[in-house]
Amino acid sequence: MHQALIDLWYGFGVAFEPHNLMWSFFGVLVGNLIGVLPGMGALSAISILLPLTYVMHPVPAILMLAGIFYGSQYGGAIGAILLNLPSHPPHAVTCLDGYPMTKAGKGGTALGITMISSFFAASVGIIVMIFCSPLLVEVAFKFGPTEIFSIMLLGLLAGATMSRGSPLKGVAMTLFGLLCGVVGTDVNTGTIRFSFGLLDLSDGLELVAISMGLFGAADFLVSVNKMSIISTSTKLKLRDMRPSMAEMKQAFMPMVRGTLVGTLFGAMPGTGPTITTFIAYALERKVSKTPERFGTGMLAGVAAPEASSHSKTQVDFIPTMSLGIPGDAVMALILGALLIQGIQPGPQLITEHPDIFWGLIASFWVGNVLLIVLNVPLIGVWVKLLKVPYKYLFPSALFFIAVGVFSTQNSLFQIWEVLAFGVIGALLMALDFSVAPILLGFVLGPMVEENFRRALLLSRGDMMIFIQRPISAWFIAASALLIIVQVWARLRKGKGKGKKDMLPKTA
C-alpha cells in the first residue's frame, strides 16, 4: 500500500507536467463535446484523433485518448437528461428517469446528481486500479506466451459472445476481424498473406483506416437521411444544478450500488458499459420499495446507471493496460494506440513504463475535476450545439476523417480502405450485426497468433502445454464454460419459443 501511494505521487508529477495537463484538458473537452452530439461517440472521436498520436510522445497521447473516453461518458448524459436523446447506447437507461425530471423542472438536479455520481464512481474505480496494480506486478512474471494466448482467447470469446445481438453474429464479426488482422507480411516467415497482389497491403490493413471506416464513415452512411434540427428551449442556471441534502441522501445508496456493479463488470473483458447500466437500473428497481415509480423521474434511476457507467469506464483500463485485453471497442482503439507507439500492453507494462501507467491513473482524477469545472459553465453551450443540423455535422466529420487518415502515411490507398470499411460497416449495421467485435478481433488477432506460435515452438508442437500449465488451464476452462453457457442459453431460448408456438391461439 505504501509503495502504491509513492507510485501515485509520481503519477501526479507526470500528470501535472504542463504539456501532459494540456493534452488531458484537450481530451476531456473534445470528449465532452462529442458525447453531447448524437451519433458521435468516443469511438468516432478517438478514431479521428488517432493519427495525431503518431507524432506525439506516448504519455500525452494516452492521456488525451483516455480523457476523450471518460469525457464522452458525461457528455452523453446531458443529451439523455435534457432532450430524451440517448446519444449513445449506455445512456438509453438514463433517459427513462432523467427526461421526466427535466419535464418536471428538475433537469438541473438530474445533471448535478450525474456529476456527483460520475466523480464518486470514477474515484472508486481509480482506487481499485491503484491497489490492484501491486498484485498485478506480482503475477506479471508468471505470464508466458502460453498464458497470454489463453487469456486473449478468453477476451476474444467474451467480446464476441457478450456483444449486442446474437452471440453467433458476434463470433462471426470477431472471426472477420481476425482475418483482417492476418493480412500482410508474416513476421515469422516473411510471407505476404491475403494481399491479392496489392503492394499497399503488404504491411497489412491500418487500424486507423478500419476504425474510421467502421465507426466514422459507417455512421454517416447510416444517418445520411437524418436532416432534422433538434429543437430545444431548455435553460439552466448554476443554482439549478445543486441537489438538496434530501436529494443527495436519496441518491447516495443507488450511487454506491451502481459503482459496485460498474467496478465488478469493469474487470471483465467484453462487457460494454451498456450492459452495466441496464444491470444497475434493474438492480435499483429490484431493491426499491416503490418500483412502479421508476420511469416517472426517480433520482435512483439516474444515479445508479451513471455511476455504473463511470466506474466501468475507469476499471476498464485494468484488463487493457495490465493484461492487454480490451474491455470494449474503445479500449481496443486505446490498445492499438499503445501498439502504434511501440509499447506492448501486458503484465510488465507497470514496471517497464511506470510514467504511462501511473500518469494515466493520476490523470483520471485530474480529468474528472476538469470535467466538473468545465460542465458547470458550459451546459448552455452543449444544449445549443444540439441544434446543429446533421447536414452540416456529418460532412464536416467526413472531411476530418479523410484528412486524418491521409496524414498518417500520406497514402490515398488508406482513404479507399476507409471507404471500403465504411460501406461494410453500414451494411453490417443494416443487417443488425455489431461491428465492435471486428475491431477487437483485428487488434488482438496478431497478438493471439504470435503467442500461440511461440508457445508451440517452446513445447515443440505439443498442444497439451495449454492445459498442463495451471494459469493457462484455468483460462481455457473459462473459455469452454463461456461457450457452454452461451449454447445452453440459446437452446433454452429456442425450446421456450417452440413451446410458445405450440400453445392454442385464442380469438
TrEMBL record:
Q: Where are the transmembrane segments?
A: 21-50, 110-137, 143-163, 170-187, 207-230, 323-344, 356-383, 389-406, 418-444, 471-491
- UniProt domain DUF112: residue ranges: 21-440
Give UniProt keywords alphabetically: Membrane, Transmembrane, Transmembrane helix
- Protein name (record): DUF112 domain-containing protein
In which domain of life is the source organism classified?
Bacteria
